[in-house]
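Protein modeling request. Please complete all fields; requests missing the sequence field cannot be processed.
Requester role: graduate student
Desired output: 3D structure, token encoding
Chains: 1
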Amino acid sequence: MGKEVKYVPTKSGVRLIGMSDTVRDAAVAGAERVAREASRIHPSGTYQVNPAVVVAGRENEKRMGAVVADKSERSGGWRRQSLRRGIQAARVRL
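Delivered output (94 residues):
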């Protein structure tokens, strides 16, 4: 049979992937889905999606991510609730 190949990730390789444009684009796409769902649930909200560097992983390394913020003048409780429901709805619609 053929030679067995074993994949061993390197920290620098994982870091490159985590900071890549592809990961950023996937995170932004997911955040946009959450913002759409939150807007559908509470149309009075003003939802904004921005790419962001987040800390994640076993080594607490910087990785690309995204942030969804409600910029409307509503109280904090409603903001959190509409974003939480948006996340739940986005999960269901995957």
